[in-house]
Amino acid sequence: ENVPLNIEVNGSVHQAKIDPRVTLLDFLREHLQLTGTKKGCDYGQCGACTVHVDGQRINSCLSLAVMNDGRKVTTIEGLADGAELHPMQAAFIKHDGLQCGYCTPGQIMSAVACIREGHADSDEEIREFMSGNICRCGAYPNIVAAIREVKG
Ligand code: FES
């Protein structure tokens, strides 16, 4: 039986009735057509599905949409300020922090959280915080460089 869901995503409030088994990831991608958030493994191992909920990063594949009732979600689509990229998006481009790009939305959402949560004081700290975001192309050194630049 479907249950009501009231959720704010990138500043827009959505009211829906959904199957309580739907993950936040599938809700974002399939109900809201916000396909920037990627599904890599669907079981918490790759970080491609990383979003922010009330400012904290989570793996959206491990969270049921209904568990986020009343919360505020930010996805990669909500990061830019109109036509202006978020500084982390610009830094990923500048430092080539991507190759195929599939993991990039999750990497960027984690990278923003890395700085916001105060884990970007050294390369080691950055690598530790970012260790749940897997990049099959191996762009890790460039990702760290991008984060270091935004940290300043
Ligand atoms: Fe969620 Fe891989 S899709 S961690």
UniProtKB/TrEMBL annotation:
Membrane-crossing residue ranges in chain numbering: none
Domain 2Fe-2S ferredoxin-type: 3-79
Keywords, ordered alphabetically: 2Fe-2S, Iron, Iron-sulfur, Metal-binding, Oxidoreductase
Keyword Transmembrane helix: no
Molecular functions (GO terms): 2 iron, 2 sulfur cluster binding; metal ion binding; oxidoreductase activity, acting on the aldehyde or oxo group of donors
Name this polypeptide is given: Xanthine dehydrogenase YagT iron-sulfur-binding subunit
Species of the source: Arcticibacter pallidicorallinus
Shown chain mapped onto the complete sequence: 48 to 199 of 203
